[in-house]
Amino acid sequence: MGLPSCKHLRFFGCHLNSMAGKCVALFVIALVFRAAMLPTFSGFGEVAQNSFRVINKGSLSSDSELQMRKNKFLEVPQIVWGLNNQKIAFARACLTARMMKRTLLMPSLSASLFYKEIDLLQPISFDKVFQFERFNSLCNGFVRLGRYSDLSNRTQVFELQKGSGRKWTIERDLDQLREFSKEPYDGYEVIRILGKNPFLWHDHWPVKDYAKVFDCLVLVEEISKEADKVVSKIREMGRKVGSKAVFSQNASNSESPSSLPMPYIAVHMRIEKDWMIHCKKLEQRFNISQICSSKEEIIGRVGNIAGLKTPMIVYLAVADSLLEDNSILNGWKEDLLNYPCGGDSILKGEGNQKMKEVTLADQTTYDAKVVGFDQDKDVAVLRVDAPNEKLRPIPPVVSADLLVGQKVYASGSQ
């Protein structure tokens, strides 16, 4: 059929060369095209959507590895307070850097505990507490730590003031992070966050993300050994108590008492002055009275734990340098044998030089100060501010001269 004859064709009764016919023809062609091509596009959309979902549900490293940048950095204020709080603050800083697709510059931790005397804080580098390379290896693709030596130009720094106060809501905080993750701020090599330490920042991340960061934290050997000393002391105390319990009950167990592990319970004595001030403010703000706990309340709750088998070692975790009450060892049941460990003693690697209190046999109490100690032997020498007549020296004796029933004190190796 020749082209000229096409003009005489009719389509549903309409000549193609008429305006109405042309419109109908275009409409039919569009319907045919849609019927033929839409499944393909729909399938493509579904595949693309499914691919996006697969990426989101995949491993944390699969999508983050492509986004994490080694030439953009985030700097945060010094991380302070107890070691657990510092770990939480560090993880929050890591997750903030991850959101901004930046490498976190190795932060400074704190080796001392102070409430408000910020100038007295003893900074300690992250890699003096945790293994730097090990962290990056375990958290590869999720978060990343960098050193200041990695910077190419220290003048390309943008200072970001972190908001605070009741009006600084979690939504405003998140909007700020999103804003400064874009241009022109994203062009800076370093974004330095100013303000409060990361523990006080708003939280935007699930617990599993914090757990991922915690799993990457491995103590350096020196501090790990200090922690092992604490564990060994707890076990040693347990062996002594277990040995006494076995022999006092005339147990016929063939196992050696030293092979019987003594159970222990760890108690976080949260009665430090910083927390007591904070919790009392919270109670006033929310008009409730169940946030703060006194020493007596904690001791009572531990002693009334259902199913608690005694005797048992009670490991007391407390920030001793922030204590206003030094009598945390008093008031426990006889079958709950307390073992204190200052929250800052491991990082500092030294004993507590604070003033102590010593109660004599006649129930009089005097101040005392540690003048010497041996962590390995768990022995300390105290200077007691008491009258001379109250401090009677113990005369040395020979065992052959002792009488049956006479009270003696012995020291030395077993």
UniProtKB/TrEMBL annotation:
It comes from the Eukaryota. GO terms for biological process: fucose metabolic process; pollen-pistil interaction; proteolysis. GO terms for molecular function: glycosyltransferase activity; serine-type endopeptidase activity. It holds the Pfam family O-FucT. Keywords: Carbohydrate metabolism, Fucose metabolism, Glycosyltransferase, Transferase. Belongs to the peptidase S1C family. Belongs to the glycosyltransferase GT106 family. PANTHER family: O-FUCOSYLTRANSFERASE 23. This is O-fucosyltransferase family protein. It comes from Vitis vinifera. The lineage of its organism: Eukaryota, Viridiplantae, Streptophyta, Embryophyta, Tracheophyta.
